[in-house]
Design goal:
The chain has 202 residues and is mainly β. Helices cover 9% and strands 50% of the residues. A six-stranded antiparallel sheet has the order 1-2-3-8-5-6. Strands 9, 10, 11, 12 and 13 form a five-stranded antiparallel sheet that branches. The radius of gyration is 20 Å and the shape is elongated.
C-alpha cells in the first residue's frame, strides 16, 4: 500500500522542518540575505545579536549556485547542514567567509548555514581563556587551528595521558596535523591559566 511512502515523506518533511527549528530559535529576527534571487530558490536569514542563520530552499530538480550576502556581519565561519533526497540534516564542510560567499545547493534540498560570531570580551587583558577559538572540531589531516591573542603554550595528550605534541604559539597556531584518528585533550596555558579542549581527529 501507500503507507511506507507516506511515512517516508512525513519523515523527510520532519527533517526539512528541523532545518529551520534546530537553528532559528526564539529571539532571531529575519533579515535580507541574497543579492540576486534564483528562480524557485527561496532564501531567508535570521539574526540574533551577531549570530546569523541562513536557510536556503532549492525547489528545482537541479543543483543551483548562488551568492549569499549578509552586509556587516561579524561571522567568519558558517556550518552547513543539508536535507535532500539522500541527506538528512547532513553536515558538510564549514565555509570560512564573512559578509558574502558563494554556495551550491543540492537539487530539491533545504540547506542551513549557521554562522556564530566570534566572542570578543572586554576581559581580554586579564583573562584570555574566554577568548580562545579551537576549530575545526572534529578535524582531519589539516589539523586544528588555535586562535588566542598573545603568547601561549600548548600540549596535546591522548586519552591515556601521553603527550603527542607540544609547543608554543602566538595569536594563531595550527596543531595536530600528524595525529591519527581518535579523541585527544588539547591544553592551552597562558599567564598561568590552563584551559583544556576535547578535540576529535576524524
Amino acid at each position: 500500500g501507500n503507507t511506507p511512502v507516506a511515512a517516508g515523506t512525513a519523515t523527510k518533511r520532519g527533517y526539512c522542518m528541523a532545518q529551520f527549528s534546530n537553528w532559528v530559535r526564539p529571539g532571531y529576527v529575519r533579515v535580507d540575505a541574497i543579492k540576486q534571487p534564483v528562480t524557485n530558490v527561496f532564501v531567508s536569514a535570521y539574526k540574533k545579536g551577531d549570530d546569523v542563520v541562513i536557510v536556503a530552499v532549492n525547489k528545482t530538480t537541479s543543483s543551483k549556485t548562488l551568492t549569499l550576502s549578509i552586509p556587516g556581519t561579524k561571522v567568519t565561519k558558517w556550518d552547513q547542514y543539508t536535507t535532500s533526497a539522500s541527506k538528512n540534516i547532513a553536515k558538510s564542510n564549514s565555509i570560512t567567509a564573512g559578509t558574502s560567499f558563494q554556495v551550491t545547493l543540492d537539487a530539491a534540498s533545504v540547506t542551513t548555514f549557521n554562522g556564530i560570531a566570534p566572542t570578543v570580551t572586554g576581559l581580554e587583558e586579564t583573562d584570555n581563556s574566554i577568548n580562545t577559538e579551537v576549530y575545526p572540531n572534529p578535524f582531519y589531516s589539516e589539523g586544528v587551528q588555535i586562535n588566542k591573542s598573545g603568547n601561549f603554550t600548548y600540549s596535546i595528550k591522548d586519552m591515556g595521558g601521553v603527550i603527542m605534541e607540544s609547543g608554543q604559539g602566538q595569536n594563531k597556531q595550527t596543531v595536530g596535523m600528524k595525529l591519527v584518528t581518535g579523541v585527544y585533550l588539547l591544553s592551552l596555558e597562558q599567564n598561568g591559566i590552563v584551559t583544556t579542549h576535547k578535540i576529535v581527529r576524524k
